[in-house]
Design goal:
single chain; 107 residues; alpha+beta; 6-stranded mixed β-sheet; two-stranded antiparallel sheet
Length: 107
């Protein structure tokens, strides 16, 4: 009987997880994270402010910029189904994916 090293098995399973696309109705968790069908997906290349971070507007007043980033992502998605292509897995096991561009008539 053959033995498969644990590291090789982990790479194999990771590649299987990356092979699928994630399509469907997304919920915005925070400015760089969506949830589709119960799977949390971090958006590749997006680095929003931390949840406790405050920013200053042009009027010098502070506002919750992390909340604004999440609201902006929610407005961009606008309750339409999304399609994400996995790029990698992060150190915590979450999928990192790109949000596909707009298609005619769907965005």
């Amino acid at each position: 009987m053959y033995r498969i090293p644990a590291a090789l098995m982990l790479v194999f399973l990771s590649n299987m997880a990356l092979a699928d696309q994630f399509m469907g109705q997304a919920s915005v968790i925070k400015g760089d994270t969506l949830e589709i069908h119960g799977t949390r997906i971090r958006l590749w290349g997006v680095d929003p402010p931390e949840s406790s971070q405050l920013c200053r507007g042009e009027d010098s007043l502070q506002y919750r910029c992390a909340a604004q980033a999440a609201n902006g992502l929610d407005a961009f998605i606008a309750r339409r189904p999304v399609n994400c292509i996995p790029v990698s897995l992060e150190q915590y096991g979450r999928t990192v994916a790109t949000l596909l561009g707009r298609r005619r008539g769907s965005w």
